[in-house]
Write the structure tokens for this entry.
Amino acid sequence: MALRSFWLEEVLTEDPDVAPPLEGEHKADVCIVGGGYTGLWTAIRLKEREPSLDVVIVERDICGGGASGRNGGYALSWWAKYLSLVKVCGEEEALRLCRASAEAVDEISRFSAENGIDAHYRRNGWLWAATCALHKGAWNPTLEALERRQIRPFRELTQDEAQAMSGSSKIVGGVFEAGAATIQPARLARGLRRVAIERGVRVYENTPMVRLRRSRPPIVQTRKGAVKAECVVLAMNAWSAQFREIFPAIIVISADMIMTEPMPERLAEIGWSNGVPIMDSRMLLQAYRTTLDGRVGFGKGGVNGVKAFGGRIGARFDGQTPLAADLERGLKEIYPTLSEARIVSGWNGPVDRSKSGLPMFGGLGGRRDILYAVGFSGNGVGPCVLAGRILASLVLGAKDEWSGAGLVRPPERSFPPEPIRYIGASLVRAAAAAKDRAEHRGRTPGAITRLLAGFAPSGVAPSGVAPAGVAPTKRKKPHALADSKGSK
Ligand SMILES: Cc1cc2nc3c(=O)[nH]c(=O)nc-3n(C[C@H](O)[C@H](O)[C@H](O)COP(=O)(O)OP(=O)(O)OC[C@H]3O[C@@H](n4cnc5c(N)ncnc54)[C@H](O)[C@@H]3O)c2cc1C
């Protein structure tokens, strides 16, 4: 297996333990496909709520081998996505989910402490920054909408304050949300795996599902065996694009990261020892953070990365990032003071971008016994905690605030078929890059560039400039799923 990420390499030297591949015919109450945060949190919640439940996880690689062990480690709430949430599920539910997502960030800390997971959790907040004058105020529509409800998760900073907080003279403004945290993502993924196993979840690594048989009950077919389960949970992130119902709902695109050598003294000199992670307001979003040992991790997301034709995730998503030079240039543009920094690692991973930038949960093809969770759009560290609660409630047929959450809905039908999708995504990426370039030169981009860039899926804030005050839409009815445990 190619290098997966700096984070996983670091953890696996301490934790070489691998769960065995599945062999033979098995039965289970619940079979979860995918051992990332979504699958692991779901398994843990199910065992908490019904300890006697027989829960199996089958994982193609190792748990955390997907995005959960490769991400930037920003644990963010959904407050920045408030307007997108309002569009999907109305104001009251958006507020409830934002609050729950902020609690989820704290819960990672609490759960880790209670279960001996050292995920390098640091609750230092995050800075939503502008790197050019035209990006100042990118957050205004969101802050204004929240202000009308007298909710103030963000504090506006002056240019001086933003520069002092980030240690970069290239940052010209920003807002700060104190509730965010950073983690070492692979440590969390591997820790959740350990806890799941300790609670009796049967975990099979190096076990790809090769076919989902939609029989009743459904059967997860693997290379050397199968699991017949009362309920199957597809916690497969971008890999779920292979299902015809999910394909129109997401585009699969890589996010890419590089890591520097440790340089804690240099960070202290430039004034960036506070652990505050930063995301800027570009369409080709850049994110930069520090680690406990004084490295800088620098990433790019949005529609910047490698695209998966037909949703097929090949080897280009599983190794060194092809964008390393571009990332290093990006880092050194923002931090000319770190121009000597040596890059020691670079990798990427697939992201399941939905048009709204929000995930969706429900039953595949209306089935109550085959569930999906997809569309985290590069913001899954915190939200996957909620995904675990939502999926556990759906599996158990509970009627509660999780099974009835506004994000339980049929897959969005947002993206066209191939090859239009691939060509379109390339055009949108070019337009987004042109828009960012023009704005950094102090120019408003042309109408065609703006139009094309407007097709990009939502990033930190909704795509296009969200009007201040989006009218609340009627709350959608929860997807009709299991109404009793017995219906699985
Ligand atoms: C480079 C990068 C940076 C990111 N940065 C951030 C960040 O800073 N903050 C943030 O909140 N989010 C970030 N994200 C997104 C975040 O990592 C994801 O949203 C989150 O990890 C999703 O968890 P998951 O369990 O749904 O998916 P995954 O962790 O990808 O788990 C899905 C699992 O399914 C397995 N699988 C796939 N197909 C099969 C099959 N056929 N059979 C069995 N198993 C299968 C995969 O191997 C994988 O392990 C980033 C993502 C990437 C790639």
The first strand starts at residue 24 and ends at 33. The CA atoms of residues 83 and 142 lie 6 Å apart. The chain has two domains: 6-415, 420-453. Residues 420-453 form one domain.
